[in-house]
Design goal:
The structure is a single chain. The chain has 16 helices and 16 strands. The protein is of the alpha/beta class. The chain folds into three domains: 140 residues, P-loop containing nucleotide triphosphate hydrolases (Rossmann fold, 3-Layer(aba) Sandwich), CATH 3.40.50.300; 79 residues, Helicase, Ruva Protein, domain 3, CATH 1.10.8; 119 residues, no CATH class. A five-stranded parallel sheet has the order 2-5-6-1-7, with helices on both faces. The chain starts with 15 loop residues before the first helix and ends with a strand.
């Protein structure tokens, strides 16, 4: 008796772009963050009706990825907050997502028919002949009428028959004057299906919570910034899939420490690092070494991911025809005005934490030949805070200055401040 040889199972070949996915839902490198029970909370919510789930957290902290894992876009109606300029648009988006039509056509037909026919045999015996004839008339009438159902009734009726979760992503982009109307619509939906709102910041949900009868009907879930060990998981799983050997996980730790608590940025850094090693897909073992030099690597990534608000902060407000004082650095042959100097001071003071403004003052005293006075630094920070606030859209501002403390809330701004090639000059001997 011949035995069939067991076929060897070939390991899957992963593309680097499949493994490290910035801005989309990862598979290989997805970290459920089990310690925080985030998925368990969403699953628990999914088992109940009569409540809306509000998911809030810092920008690029994985809120959308978390919800999409449990409510996939193929099984739920996903709506972008920025598309909702009115409550009517909200209902239209739901109707489109559910594949509904708001016009019903009815056709009725009625009619009558009359007819006659006959036959006779003629001729002598033995001879046969025949004549047959017929005549008929018919009348028919058809009527058609169309009626339009209101979109809210149409949507609610469809959800009564077959509940389908509704996800509103980036709820903060719903205009302020529309949120109350959306909240009232949500109140009529949560008894029929699940409604999930995703936003930054937490305050975006206030109109929903404030709607009468919504008390106790909003399930709140906060997604906290990621810890270094959680970000290292992304490198560990991704490097394993691509056969990049990081024995002591020193590279994974360095990339995680440089991601400022944002999995979005960690995915980008890991992807670009693998490509810097020449790894486009799963290959033979590749050692996780320095990609030429870390400074140059981070600088290249920072330039590609430069946030739009940075140039506004560097430029500052309109000086109204007055030229700002140029300030020269001590260790490099370069100059900048007070806005560039304060941004430099923020980066030197450490953007991965709340920064007391006195730390920025001290950093400028060390770095500049003629440092600005502390009151000048305070004034500049207030102007920067206002610039960031005005450019925030409907999210948290990228930078904030309150009660003598600076908060850099956009991880990509923090990364660019530290590694972007925005202060250039030759080192002084």
């Amino acid at each position: 008796m011949r035995r069939r040889s067991k076929e060897s199972v070939r390991p899957r070949i992963w593309q680097t772009s499949e493994v490290f996915v910035a801005g989309q839902s990862p598979t290989v490198t997805y970290n459920p963050r089990d310690d925080l029970h985030l998925e368990a909370e969403v699953f628990e919510y999914r088992e109940q009706f009569g409540k809306a789930l509000s998911v809030s957290g810092p920008s690029k902290s994985g809120k959308t990825v978390l919800i999409e894992r449990i409510f996939p876009k193929t099984e739920a109606v996903w709506v972008e907050g920025g598309d909702l300029s009115s409550a009517d648009h909200f209902w239209q988006r739901l109707a489109d997502g559910l594949g509904l039509f708001d016009e019903v056509r009815e056709r009725n037909e009625r009619g009558k028919q009359r007819g006659r026919g006959g036959g006779v045999e003629l001729g002598p015996p033995g001879a046969r002949g025949s004549w047959r004839g017929s005549s008929s008339t018919s009348e028919a009438e058809a009527t058609e009428r169309a009626r339009t159902r209101t979109l809210p009734d149409l949507v609610r009726g469809a959800l009564d028959r077959e509940p389908q979760a509704i996800i509103i992503d980036d709820f903060q982009y719903v205009p302020q004057n529309v949120r109350k109307a959306i909240a009232r619509a949500i109140k009529t939906l949560i008894t029929r299906t699940h409604v999930v709102l995703i936003a930054v910041p937490h305050e975006a949900f206030e109109p929903v919570r404030a709607e009468p009868d919504m008390g106790g009907r909003v399930w709140q879930l906060a997604v906290e910034p990621w810890q270094v060990y959680e970000l290292m998981y992304i490198a560990h799983e991704g490097f394993s899939a691509l056969n990049i050997v990081d024995g002591r996980e020193e590279v994974g730790q360095l990339l995680a420490q440089t991601s400022y608590g944002a999995p979005f940025l960690m995915q980008q850094l890991c992807h670009d690092y693998a490509r810097a090693l020449g790894v486009k897909e799963t290959a033979a073992d590749v050692s996780a070494d320095e990609p030429g030099n870390w400074s140059g690597f981070f600088s290249r990534v920072a330039e590609r991911t430069k946030p739009g608000v940075f140039d506004n902060l560097l430029r500052g407000p309109d000086p109204r025809g007055q030229e700002r004082t140029k300030r020269r650095f001590k260790i490099i042959d370069a100059t900048t005005d007070i806005y560039g100097a304060v941004l430099f001071g923020i980066s030197k003071a450490g953007v991965d934490r709340p920064i007391p403004y006195r730390d920025v003052v001290r950093a400028l005293q060390v770095s500049l030949e003629e440092a600005p006075q502390s009151n000048q630094v305070t004034s500049t920070l207030r102007h920067m805070s206002q610039i960031a606030f005005d450019a925030r859209g409907s999210s948290d501002p990228a930078l904030d200055f309150k009660r003598g403390t600076i908060h850099v809330m956009d991880p990509f701004l923090a990364f660019y401040l530290d590694y972007g090639p925005w202060i250039t000059g030759k080192a002084k001997r």
